[in-house]
Every structure is written in structure tokens, then in C-alpha cells.
Design brief:
Layout: H1 6-32, H2 35-118, H3 120-138, E1 144-149, E2 155-160, E3 169-172, H4 178-185, H5 191-213, E4 223-226, H6 230-239, H7 241-249, E5 252-255, H8 257-334
Parallel strand pairs: 3-4, 4-5
Antiparallel strand pairs: 1-2, 2-3
Function: Involved in DNA recombination.
Organism: Caldovatus sediminis
Protein name: DNA recombination protein RmuC homolog
Length: 349
């Protein structure tokens, strides 16, 4: 029962009970003949009933006002919650609109990508762009060449310049995707034929790479077939392992962007080791030249030491002669000769 219904039922029940009492009292007094007393008593009862009804009406009004205030507060709270929920719903709708816009943009990009992959020249350019980013990120500038022309007149997408062995390695980025798209779009009954067509196209591409890009004495004994999709490369290895093994026997290794990254990292380490060996050889040559110069310096210092020793000996002999000359001069000064005396004989030495 609602809380507001009880205050309304209480006065009605009280009035009904009072009426029943008055009716019973009148019946009793009528039997006894005391109508006046009954009327007086009835008037008193009615006055008391009126007062009680007034009090009940006042209490009912208070209860109704309290219920109205309570209902108003609850309505305000409900309105506030509704507004907050509406605000959250608007925020979520904004997020959903943004996500929908992103999905539409992504769908447009996917459509553009499908058009690119559907066109053979655009697909080749797309694979070459991926390959270019990988190669230029991992290898030094002098370690590769784009659109290099081999001795047989064939222009390759990329030539990685490794020393012999193994020699320069050619990377081809023009993977055939028509058969793959047909295989993906084929119905269940048409999938075996589509799979055979896909394997045949890949086999022809492997044969072309082996014939054009594997040149004994000029390139390495193998070449790389770059597949610009991890899903296609995984499908090749999982569903056509015999084809992958046949390509390896022909010297064509199938690589995806991730495996190409690992291969380029290994090649980068090999090139760095070769550069270190070349620099070590240059250092060895310079050290040998330095040792030759040190030997030449030792010989010249020894010659200078000999010249210095000879100079010391000559100076000592000169000093000895000077001392002898000084003694002879003193002796000559001490000799007193007569005026007619003959000159003394010249001493030898």
C-alpha cells in the first residue's frame, strides 16, 4: 500500500465508526424513551468527533506535505541522475561517433590498399617501399643499391653488396597476389583449384627469380623473394611446405617483413665484421710503416752517435795539440839567446 493512502483512509474509518456508534446509541435511547439525553450525548459525541476529525485532517495535511516534499526530493534526485546518465550517454555517443569515423577512414584505407594490391605496378611499388624502409634502416648506405642492372641486362629491385663469399644478394619485391586474392575469395568447393593456381603462380615466380637473379661469379648462390605480408608468408610455409622447400633448392629464400628484418640484421653484423677486418688490416699496414720509420731513425741516431764520437776525438786531439803549442811557446819565451848565436834546430813533430 502506498504511504500517501494511509492518512486518507484513517479519517474515513473514524467517520464510519462514529456514524455506527451514533446509530447504535439512537436505537438504544429510542427503546428507553430518553431521546433528549440521547440527542445531547450525540451532540457531545459529534463535537468530539469533529475535533478528532480536525486533528486527523491537520495530521493528514502534514503527512501529505511531508510526502509531497519527499516525492519532490526523490524526483529531483531522479532528474539529476537522469541528467548525469544522459551526459554519460552523450559522451559515449561521441566516442562511438569518433570510432565510427575511424572505422570509416580505416575502411577507406583498406579499400585503397586493396586497389593498390590489385594493380600489379602499384603492388610492386608498395612492396618496394616496404623493402626500402627495412633495408635503409638496417644497412649502411654503401651496403646496397636500388634498381641495379646485372650483367645479363636484368634490373633488380635491390642488390645487397656482400663480399665473396657469399657475394651480392638480389632481393625481389614483386610477389604475385592475384592468385592469393582469388584463393581468399573462393568458395569452399573452389578452394582446391584456387590453391593449385596460387602454388603454380608462386612456382613460376620462383623460377623467374632463380633464372634472372642467380648468376655464378657475379651474385650469391641464392636470392631473396620478399613477401610484403606476414599472413601470406605464414600460409605459404603452413599450407605449401613442399613449394617452400623447392624454392630453397633453387636458391630462392622466401622472406616476410619480420624475417627480412632478421636477415638484414645478420647481414649488418657481417658487414660490420668485414669493416673491422679492413680497418685492422689498415692499422697493421700503418704499424709496419711506423716500425720501418723507427728502424730508419735508429740507424740515423747511430750514425749521429758515431759522428759525435769522432767529433769528440777530434776536439781532444785539437786540445792536445793546443797544449803542446802552449808549452813550446812558454819554453821559447824562457830561452835567452846571444845576438850572434845560430838559430836552434827545428824539432820534429
Amino acid at each position: 500500500m502506498p504511504d500517501w493512502l494511509l492518512p486518507l483512509l484513517v479519517p474515513a474509518a473514524a467517520a464510519l465508526a462514529a456514524g455506527l456508534l451514533v446509530a447504535a446509541f439512537l436505537l438504544a435511547r429510542r427503546r428507553r424513551g430518553g431521546v433528549g439525553e440521547a440527542l445531547a450525548m450525540l451532540a457531545g459525541r459529534l463535537e468530539a468527533l469533529a475535533a478528532t476529525q480536525e486533528r486527523l485532517a491537520a495530521a493528514t495535511a502534514d503527512r501529505l506535505r511531508a510526502q509531497e516534499r519527499l516525492i519532490a526530493d526523490r524526483l529531483d534526485e531522479a532528474a539529476a541522475r537522469t541528467q548525469a546518465q544522459a551526459a554519460r550517454i552523450h559522451e559515449r555517443l561521441a566516442v562511438i561517433d569518433s570510432a565510427r569515423a575511424n572505422i570509416e577512414a580505416l575502411g577507406a584505407q583498406v579499400g585503397t590498399l586493396e586497389r593498390i594490391l590489385g594493380d600489379k605496378q602499384a603492388r610492386g611499388a608498395f612492396g618496394e617501399v616496404q623493402l626500402r624502409e627495412l633495408v635503409e634502416d638496417r644497412l649502411p648506405p654503401g651496403g646496397f643499391a636500388w634498381q641495379h642492372v646485372l650483367s645479363n641486362g636484368t634490373r633488380c629491385d635491390c642488390l645487397i653488396r656482400l663480399p665473396h663469399p657469399p657475394g651480392p644478394i638480389v632481393v625481389d619485391s614483386k610477389f604475385p597476389l592475384e592468385a592469393w586474392n582469388a584463393l581468399r575469395a573462393a568458395a569452399e568447393a573452389e578452394r582446391p583449384a584456387a590453391a593449385r593456381r596460387f602454388a603454380a603462380d608462386v612456382r613460376r615466380h620462383v623460377e623467374a627469380i632463380a633464372a634472372k637473379y642467380v648468376l655464378p661469379g657475379e651474385t650469391a648462390e641464392g636470392a631473396l623473394m620478399f613477401v610484403p605480408s606476414e599472413a601470406i608468408c605464414a600460409a605459404l610455409h603452413a599450407e605449401h611446405p613442399a613449394l617452400v622447400a623447392e624454392a630453397a633448392r633453387r636458391g630462392v629464400w622466401i622472406v616476410s617483413p619480420n624475417t627480412m628484418w632478421a636477415v638484414l640484421t645478420t647481414m649488418r653484423g657481417l658487414m660490420r665484421d668485414l669493416r673491422l677486418k679492413a680497418e685492422a688490416h689498415r692499422i697493421r699496414v700503418e704499424v709496419d710503416r711506423l716500425m720501418e720509420e723507427l728502424g730508419r731513425l735508429d740507424r740515423r741516431v747511430a750514425a749521429l752517435r758515431g759522428h759525435f764520437a769522432q767529433m769528440q776525438q777530434d776536439v781532444a786531439e785539437i786540445e792536445t795539440t793546443s797544449r803542446k803549442i802552449a808549452r813550446r811557446g812558454q819554453a821559447i819565451q824562457l830561452v835567452e839567446l846571444p845576438e850572434d848565436a845560430p838559430p836552434p834546430a827545428r824539432a820534429a813533430g
